[in-house]
Every structure is written in C-alpha cells, then in structure tokens.
Amino acid sequence: MIETVAGDAAHRLGIPPGHVQADLIRELTERLFDYEGLFHLPEVDWYQGRTIAELWDIREELTRQRSFVVDFEANRELLQTAITAVLEPIYTACPALFAEPDDSDGINVPTSLLRSIGNIGEVTEAMLGVAFGEELAERGLLARLSDRLERNLVAASGGNPADPRSFTRAPRMPEQFDAKSPEQLVSTYLGGTPLLPLFDQTLDFTIHTKSRFEHQHIVAGSGHGKTQTLQYLIAGDLNAVIEGNRTVIVLDSQGDLIRTIANLKMFAPGEPLHDRVVIIDPSDVEWPVSLNLFDVGMERLAGYAPLERERLTNSILELYDFVLGTLLSAEMTQKQNVIFRYVTRLMLHIPDATIHTLRELMEPGSEKKFAPHITKLTGTARHFFESEFAGKEFEQTKKQVLRRLWGILENQTFERMFSHPRSKLDLFAEMNACKVILINTAKDLLKEQGTEIFGRFFIALIAQAAQERATLPAHKRTPTIVYIDEAQDYFDRNIGLILAQARKYNVGMVLAHQYLGQLEPKLQEAFAANTAIKFAGGVSAKDARALAPMLYCQPELIEAQPKGSFAAHVRGQTKSAVPLSFPFGHMEVLPRMEKAERASLRQTMRKRYAVHFSELEKADEPVESEGTEASATMQPEGQPDSRTATQPSDQKPPGHINTDAGEGW
C-alpha cells in the first residue's frame, strides 16, 4: 500500500523511480501512515482484562480501520492526491529538486533546501491548506496531522494550543508570520509532524563552467562573506588546475585573499602545484617584480601572419587607453585620446622602452630626442610627430600626463617594478600552462592611483593574452577564470569590450565589490549586460531594488539573505534568483605550508619573476657618454642586460631590508 501510494505521488510529480526524491516521498508516506495509524490493525491481547472505556477505544479504532478498507480505492486515491498536493508547492518553488546528480564540469554549491525556496511562507501555507481539506476530514484520513497543524497555527497566532476551540480570532497565516529565519517559520507551523523533515535536505547547485565564461558579478556588503565565497569558488578551481585543465588568476588589493591562497600546502615543493604557481607581490620591496608596460611580446607577434599581427597590434593600442587612461583625472577627451594612441604606437618601436621613456616623451624637446625612432613610423603616425606633437595644441595634455607620471613614480615600489626593460612575466604563456597566478595589487603600499594602474596593467595583459589566443586552435585555449576583488578600483567603460573579448577565448571573469554606488551608472550597465552569473547579498534596500530586476526576483529576497548566502541568478539556468549559501572557513581548513616551505617558494618567485633592487640602482648610474638617438636605459643589441643579473646571496647592499618569508606570507 505504501509503495503504491508513494509511487503514484512521485509519478504525478514527474519524478522517475530510483530518483533520490522518489525515495524521500516513500519515506514521507511511511511516516504519515505510521503517524496516522492508517491500514494498521491494533494488536490486542484478548486474555488481558480491560475496562469498558478501553474496550470502547479498541472498538472505535477497529471501526476506523474498517472504514478505510470499506472504501479502499477511494481512500487510496485521496491519499495519493493529498500527498501529491502537499509536496507540489515544494517542488514548484525549488525545481532543482528534480535534477539528477550533476557530474558535469562546474562548481557545486551545497545549499539548504530552505535557503533555496524564495517564499517559504507561501509554500508552508499551501501545505497547510491541503491538510485541512474537507474530504480528508470527513474520512478521517489525516486527522492527527490536521489536529497538530491546527494547534501549531493557534500557537503562532497567540492562542492556547491546548484549547484550539477557544481561539476565535483570525489566525496568523505563514505568509503573515514575522519569522527571523526560514527554519523558525517551518518549525512553528509544521513542528511535531512528518512534514517538517521534508525541509531537512541539502541540494547541490551546479554553476556550469560554460556559464562562468560569460562572467560573474558579485555585490556583497562588508562582512557578508564575499571573500569566503571567492575562496570557496577558487578552491573548486584549484582542483581543476591540479587535473591540468584550468588556469586561475586572482587580483586582490587587500592582500588577505592572496595570502590565504598562497599558503596552501599544494604549492609547497613536491606538492601538485609547486611548479605551477606565480605570485606577484609588490610588498617584497627588496625584490621588485620585473615588469614593463611596453614589453608586449612584439617578437612573438612578428612571427604571426600579417593580418593577425595588425589585429593584435591594434588591440594592444586599444588596451593602452585603458591602462594609461588612469593618468588623467577624468575620461580622456578626443585630443587626449589622440596623443595616447600615437605615443603608445611609438613606444612599441623604441627598444626596451619603460615608463621612464613615456615620461621623457612627455617632456619638451622629446620629438628631437626620439627622432631616430619616429622615423621608423610610417604614414599618419610619423606625420603626427613631425608636425603636430610639438605644437601648442597638445602642450597642456603632455604637461598633465607628465604631472601624473611624476606623482606615480614618486612611489619607489611602483617605480622599481616598472623600470625594467623586459618583463619576466609572459602572461600569454602562463595562462596556457594551467597555472595559479596570484597578483597582490597592494593598496596599502601602492596607494589608490598606483593600485589602479597596477591592476589595470594586469587586466590589460590578461585581455591581450586572451585576444592572442585567436592564433591558437580552440582546444589549446586553456580555460581561465580570473577573480578580481574590489573590481571598482580598476574598471572604466572599456569593461564591456574587455569582457566580450575574454569570453570569446575561454576566459571568464568574476568581478566582486561591495555596493553599486562604487560604479558609475554606465559602468553598472556594462556589468549588468556582460555578466551571466549574478550574486547579491548584504546590500542596502536601495541596491536591492536596483539589483532585483537583474536577478529576476523581488528585492525582499536579496535583503533576506543571511551572512554567507546570496540571491543568485544564472542566465539560461535559473528562471529567477535562488538563494545559495557558501560555507565559511572552507579554504582555511585545507593543509598549510610550513615556514621553510614558504621561504623556499618565495625564493623561487624571486628568481623567476623579480630582480634585486640594487641591480636597478646600478643601471641608473650615469654612463660616460649618452647618445641622443635613444634613452639612457637602452642596451646595445646583443649585449647582456646588467639589470637582469642576480645579486649574490651573501652580499648585503646598503639599506638592506629583511624580507624573508614570515608567518603571514
């Protein structure tokens, strides 16, 4: 009987035999039958003496059981209908319950069923209505259940549950109940019944990797769990890196996220990722990372077909607008945009050009100093430098850029990192090598403007590397996920272009920040239009109202999310936002490196990607003669560059700073 009723209810709900929910429906049916004593004759010892009252109770129970059997088919049909009707609101509110276990590539998020139902009050109220059905009451099929639910309803309405008949006021239905949590609401109305365990389920919500390449936007207020959520997502991606089918890049301006990841045991010598990690850390001031804004791999581009070379060169110039645009306080005017385009094109023709070369170009008389390189240009670009660049029309723009450059270069850490003629980091190669690339943009050290241009530099490198993937067959474009915390520090209206290009070439970005006011309106529109996955939680009522249409939900759902939980919408996967909860401390419990292992890893990073600061000081020493055809930083072709020499480990230069790896690195 139980198997028949449960099987029919599952069939009506569209759940196939063997599905985990089919087993759950059978368990519910069995609990209901036991709870109500349905189709179960009492065991009576007729040799035991009983009072008249006890005998009458036995007779009433036998009569009740007989009534179930007399109209067996109708009662069975009614029970099947009732169980289906009780369950239907839950499955309607949470279609994910129908899903089979998903073994496809993606991030699985275990989440509570209660947190996955948008309006738990509406669902609970619908379940109550079924139990109070008139026909069920007439046949006495769910009498005990309806009695307990009535007492719960009276108690929730402020009445005496021991005497429900004395309660005459209008009851407070679940949708009207001011519960502090979904758990409190269901336990208030369904407590003590077989229905309550229905909500004690955990679901695996899968965010498919394909959707992740269409980018993700996370808006979470301070303390809501944004960093913990990022750590959970990153931990899932690290497993894919170990398997050799993903690259992960993390940009963090606060440093905490980078430190938590960098200290994982999996990066220690001899562990799975010991040779597949890149850590860019400006706070290692004695060993500045060897970077160059203008070392864009022109040698590699020279090996491409003319069409690809021209396309990539134009893309590089476009990205320079994004990187260098931060040198101006507002959006670049048309005049400023013109000078940037021509100057950056010239920089690509100056061997070993650095940020100091850019500074020199902005100074008076630079058109004469760099005349030999200007002659390498052709057409309009060359004509611009010969006839327009030195004119008064562009004088003010050059002064403005020069002032901002001096301001940035005043930060010695920033200057040391970007004074190298060659970058030691080839992001195109690293992204295709299944690596974990951790970039600390160090806002406390580089300050706001330094962090902005530093972060934009790496985002531009990522975008450039993504576009260069057009030269590779699709199967060789390693899937890459880029996490950018405090994303508002780096982006402008170019974000739409960058996201569109990244998506084409297997690069997905996760953009996280605290509130919508950090983005200007046009930037908000760009984020909304170019991200397929949206998370929101812990935001103000104003932001909830603005985000609700993007997530296809009511603002109340966003506002109701507790710490660590988000209203989440995935384009093409969810019709409306669903609550997803992320566990705290997921990455913190993973094995950590020992102090010696951290020191070893840091030395490896220094050797691969940095140069001792004393080598830069040597390179800055004046030489006996300076040609007028190139800047003083250039090296003769074919000669070794003294700036890439390694400082002997036992030699302590003046002003030595101890930067050995400590506990916090």
**How many strands in all?**
11
Mean model confidence by pLDDT: 86
Query: Please, how many helices?
Result: 29
The major β-sheet equals: 9 strands, mixed
What proportion of the residues is helical, as a percent range?
40-55%
- The order of strands across the largest sheet is 5-6-4-7-8-3-9-10-11
In a few lines, what is going on in this structure?
The chain is of the alpha/beta class and 665 residues long.
Characterization of the model:
With about 675 residues, the chain is of the alpha/beta class. The chain has two domains: about 1-200, no CATH class; about 215-525, no CATH class. The protein contains 29 helices and eleven strands. The protein has helices at about 1-10, 20-35, 50-70, 70-95, 115, 120-130, 135-140, 145-155, 180-190, 210, 225-240, 255-260, 300, 305-325, 335-345, 355-360, 365-370, 370-375, 380-385, 395-410, 410-415, 425-430, 445-470, 495-505, 520-530, 540-550, 555-560, 595-610, 615-620, and strands at about 105-110, 200-210, 215-220, 245-250, 275-280, 435-440, 480-485, 505-515, 535, 565-570, 580. The strands form two sheets. A nine-stranded mixed sheet has the order 5-6-4-7-8-3-9-10-11, with helices on both faces. A two-stranded antiparallel sheet has the order 1-2. Helix 24 (about 495-505) links the parallel strand 7 and strand 8. Helix 1 crosses helix 2 and helix 24 (about 495-505) runs parallel beside helix 25. Mean pLDDT is about 85; it is low at about 625-660.
